[in-house]
Amino acid sequence: MPEETSVDLRLGTRADALRVRLRALLAELLPDDWTTSFSPDPAVQSVVTRVVERLAEEQLLTLSWPEEYGGAGTDIWQQAVLREEMWAHFEPRGPQYMGLNWVGPVIMEVGTPEQKALHLPAISSGQAVWCQGFSEPGAGSDLASLQLGAELHDGEWVLNGQKIWTSYAGLAQWCFLAARTGRGAAKHDGITIFLVPMDSPGIRVVPIESIMGEQHLNEVFFDDVRIGPEAVLGEVGRGWDVIRRVMKHERIGISRYARDERVLAALAGHPSLAEPAALHEYARALVHARVARLLNYRAVALNDAGRLTDREASIARLASIQLDQEVAALALDLSGADALVPDPSAGLLGHVEDVFRYARSATIASGTIEVQRMLVARSSIEGDRRAS
Amino acid sequence: MRRDWPQAAVAYEESVTRAFDALGGVDLARAAEADRTRREALAAPALDRLDLRGLDPWGEEDESAAVMLAVRAAGAVVLPWPLAHELAVPADLRGDVGGVHLTSGDVERLDHADLLRDAVAVDLDRGVARRVTAGAPRPAPLDPFASGVVLGPEVPGVDAARVTAMRMLLDAFWVTGALATAADLAVTHARDRQQFGKPIGKFGEIRWRVADLSLALDGLEELALHAWWLVRRGEARSADLLALRVQMIEAANTVLANGHQVMGAMGLCEEHDLTVIDRHLQSVLHRPAGRIASTGLLARAVAAEGFDGVYPVAAWR
């Protein structure tokens, strides 16, 4: 085979080396029973802090950022490996992933020099925790119908309303908030993005107990919260453009298949696989995991080439989220009833109940499976749209 | 990572597609089903004009890619010719072996067996090649080009693992082409067919079906590309090819079932291409093994060989 071929599906030596380095680092820093960063438990958050500081030290925290903002100038496959290894290890950067994956990059794209100076160093050093204030009780998949109001009084914006399903709101110092500042011809008009300090008077966070555990879901109430004009990100009334940028960065943000592959690898040789029916299900899941990974790699490659459409982006997500639930259900089933209770001494397989509980949200979070299907169908039937 | 097919192969696929379209596309399959001699009278000369049957899927990258994409183009019209069977024969054996069938256990019928001179049947379970002697045609709606067969003694000199891998790979490209046509038909119908005053593609249930069949098809396309690349590098193990076969069958079930549902009664009619594609694909979907049996083969291969991935699965048997 010639050295240089048209098709080469390897991620490259730099990406492979990074994977080895990250696994060594995480093996050193993470406790054996590490499964979640979604906890206010000081012991958990101290692990997150340790991981984030070490990643920052080794210039791995802002790996995907441009060099001018402290990034490492890495290629897209190194970034893909970082996403895979972080997700495979239960996102040990904790809430930092939001700041790194899309808050920081969007501020780079549309922020003022002052906003960049204020926020980017804090994010890149792992000092700032962000939450996303998008969903409301009346605005879920139909985000553009959001109602939380922002009115200008005496040069200050006054916020009133409610957000919901807000992950990490109890830990966050900043909220990336979408609010309605006006009405236009379309409901996407009149939305504005604010960067709001979470210690602002009038903000109240109410945790919601859920199947996923602590810190996953919260309600956030805004009662006469006053913030200055410097908090506006982008243009007033053009917040939907900013939200689309967020969606672009989130579109290939979660590499669910990587954790699923890790779980499947841990199940190899499990006694329950002696049953042929179980082994068949297991084999099918391996196929689906590989397919999901390849579809995600396709999205990454197309995105890099500026050719990613809604169709391919959402197909990658559909494959990943369905895989997540398939593997979680399979792992719990193969592990038997004893696995309904976590067993910290049993490594990854001692926590399949956690994997199962979290996977319930896979087809709901960050755009439901129904929305993803709609995007694929619309793109197929009515013509491709570039994901932007 | 570079994932775009070589330009020369893409251009060749376009010329193959034009040639098959000129012959009537799926109508050629209909014609051949009505009169088997049309396979030799129409399909074979077209393939020869394209120099397709002489290409080597183990050849240089451009040639190998051209074979895969041409087989995909042939599958797109369910060409009534055992192209994958022929191309799965290594170049050094083509004088002695006319085609490769894959089997799992005893068989009484094989598709296009009457056309292929000196074909062999490679048994997946035993890993041996046996000479195929064709009997009388025994067509059926889901097996339109079947003939009775008798399997003779073992044929030495056939690298069973090698030809099995290539045949499975070629089958996947064939099915990918056929499913792409089926998906196009469904999407076009969803766009054009009006009910309740609007295109049916505006209804959520239809949109979901289009999404699910698109996911299945794209997944197969990516896995086929990946498997081809592994074979090219000499890194494909039997589990990799069986994984491709399982995905191929599952994707076909998803695309065809959803395609029929989107098309409604019209898609069930023989005059509609979807029905012909559906019926003509069943042979490759069930030979050498259908979904359950193929999954069983994959499961055993995974246990014996492991399975590569970001987190590789270790063998345990």
Task: Strand order, main sheet of chain B: write it out.
Answer: 1-3-4-5-2
**For the residues shown, what is the average pLDDT of chain A?**
91
The coarse silhouette of chain A is globular
**Helix-strand string of chain A:** HHHHHEEEEEEEEHHHHHH
Q: How many domains, in number, for the residues of chain B?
A: 3
Number of strands of chain B: 7
Please report the first level of CATH classification, the CATH class of the largest domain in chain B.
Mainly Alpha
Ends apart, CA distance between termini of chain A:
38 Å
Known CATH architecture of the largest domain in chain B: Up-down Bundle
**Per CATH, what is the topology of the largest domain in chain A?**
Butyryl-CoA Dehydrogenase, subunit A, domain 3
Major sheet of chain A, described briefly?
Answer: 4 strands, mixed
Name the beta content range of chain B.
5-15%
What gross morphology of chain B would you assign?
Answer: globular
Poorly predicted spans of chain B? none
Question: Secondary-structure map with pairings?
Answer:
The complex is a heterodimer of chains A (388) and B (317).
Chain A: H1 13-29, H2 42-57, H3 76-88, H4 96-110, H5 113-124, E1 130-133, E2 149-153, E3 156-164, E4 174-180, E5 191-197, E6 203-207, E7 218-227, E8 232-233, H6 239-251, H7 256-267, H8 276-304, H9 310-335, H10 352-359, H11 369-382
Helix pairs in contact in A: 1-3, 3-7, 4-5, 4-6, 7-8, 7-9, 8-9, 9-10, 9-11
Chain B: H1 7-22, H2 26-34, H3 37-49, H4 61-76, H5 83-87, E1 100-103, E2 109-111, E3 120-123, E4 128-137, E5 146-154, H6 160-192, E6 194-195, E7 198-199, H7 204-232, H8 238-263, H9 273-286, H10 291-305
Parallel strand pairs in B: 1-3
Antiparallel strand pairs in B: 2-5, 3-4, 4-5, 6-7
Helix pairs in contact in B: 1-4, 2-3, 2-9, 4-6, 6-7, 6-8, 6-9, 7-8, 8-9, 8-10
